[in-house]
Amino acid sequence: MRHIFILSFLFLILFGCSKSSDSAEENYAIQTVQMPAKAENVAYDKKLSPNDAPPPPPPPIKEKIEQKIIKEATLKFETDNLENSFSQIQQAVANSKARIINDSEGKDFGSIFRNLTVKVPSQNFDRFISDISKGVSYFEVKNISAEDVTEQYIDLTSRLKTKKKLEERYLEILKKANKVSEILEIEEQISTIREEIESKEGQLKYLESRVSESTVTIEFYKTIAEKEGIKISYGSKLWEAIKSGFFTLSDLLLSLLSAWPFVILFCLFAYFIRRRLKRRKKA
After folding, report:
1. Residue 55: Cβ within 10 Å count
2. What is the mean pLDDT of each run of 10 residues along the chain (283 residues)?
3. Is this structure's pTM higher than 0.70?
4. CA triplet 43, 48, 54: central angle to 5 degrees?
5. Which site among 22, 85, 108, 271 is 20 to 30 Å from 135 CA-CA?
6. Are 76 and 141 in contact (CB under 8 A)?
7. CA distance between the termini of the chain
8. Burial of 216 from C-beta contacts in 10 A (0-12 / 13-18 / 19+)
9. What is the rounded CA–CA span in Å between residue 122 and residue 128?
10. Which residue blocks in the chain are alpha helix, DSSP H?
């Protein structure tokens, strides 16, 4: 019995050790299983991170600058009725919201003419030219030009911004200046920059005004019939000839009066020569 008890005790001890070793191995196995899982999660995270990362910011969109184009036109045509043509132009001016800035008329030997200078909003330029062209059989002169000044406009705008930023920097420096000499020097620089800014602003405004309003010069005329010209102008020609002769005679008299010292000298010279010749004859 005693041997049986000892054997049972040893069996329990061995069984407990084996059980503890099994639990230790089981824990180690769990740890070894969990470690690869963590590694897989890390690899998975690394694999998904490029997709999960926020997309790169889009490239900056360049500011679209509207084209700056100066449009001009010169028109010349013949008409049968000056008043009707002028009324048509006035109607076109009203429809296009334009304005007449110069109006002159005159008459030469063969025709009666009228000249107009019109400022037209650039967006209505084509419409205005189309309205003017109605009823005109042909144009003796039709010159339409379009000058692209976008580059010049961008350059002026950029230079103006640069000058304004420079002015702001000088103003900041002026606030920190202590010496009178420094203050005077900075103020002189600011004054120069301000003049350049005003000059650039003036150029920019002038360019914008030319772009916003197109200039159209119109000359239309009526030819005077030959018979009508003779009836109307023959008497005037005769009167002009008489006036021309009178003016020629007046110019001659004025020329003689302006040369009076030479006339007196000539008369004295002739008098002495004549007197000397008389003395020789008497001798």
Report:
1. 5
2. 49 47 41 40 42 53 75 95 94 95 90 95 95 91 94 93 94 90 92 95 94 95 68 62 70 70 77 78 68
3. no
4. 140
5. 108
6. yes
7. 213
8. buried
9. 10
10. 2-52, 82-95, 125-133, 150-176, 180-212, 226-258, 260-282
